[in-house]
Design brief:
globular, Jelly Rolls, seven-stranded mixed β-sheet, 2 domains, 33% strand, two-stranded antiparallel sheet, alpha+beta, 27% helix
């Protein structure tokens, strides 16, 4: 009997820890300032990035995501991004990259880029809030996210160049 009660208490204890954690997370979401989840201004420093296409050079200010935590968060929960802004994800090595739009409200163009700063492929007008994976066509070193329609407007395509300190010269 004591052993059965101990097992039941142990199960209850584990369940209680999970529920406590869920409650704490929920409280954190509800008690956190809305600006944390709906921020429209970048959280980090902005850096210059230039897309070189057949239509010329196009300058953007980008927020660079260098850590696992930053890359995981990305543009989640933001409701707006200025037209001349973007987010650059540094993956630190060339690899097959898979992106998604979970908790991302802004439709985006995703630009997959090699270590040398060459565009591998462009995923245009990605679906907000989707968990569908969006792959690079070949190994990529970085991904640039800009507002949907930018790639079409400036004529960005595979083979075009990207200038930023992240890429080798």
């Amino acid at each position: 009997m004591a052993q059965r009660n101990q097992r039941a208490f142990s199960k209850f204890g584990a369940m209680w820890r999970v529920l406590s954690l869920c409650g704490a997370l929920a409280l954190g979401v509800f008690l956190s300032p809305a600006s944390v989840f709906a921020q429209s201004a970048p959280a980090g420093e902005l850096e210059d990035l230039i897309l070189v296409t057949s239509s010329g050079e196009h300058v953007f200010k980008v927020e660079v995501m260098r850590t696992d935590e930053q890359r995981a968060r990305g543009l989640m929960f933001r409701r707006h991004m200025p037209v001349d802004r973007g987010m650059l994800f540094d993956f630190k090595t060339e690899q097959r990259v898979m992106m998604w739009m979970r908790n991302t409200y802004i439709p985006l163009d995703m630009v997959f880029i090699t270590r040398a700063g060459v565009v591998v492929n462009v995923a245009e007008d990605t679906e907000p809030m989707s968990e569908r994976t969006i792959p690079s066509a070949a190994p990529a070193y970085a991904v640039l996210e800009v507002n949907a329609g930018v790639a079409r407007r400036i004529g960005l395509k595979a083979g075009d160049r990207v200038k930023h300190t992240l890429f080798s010269r």
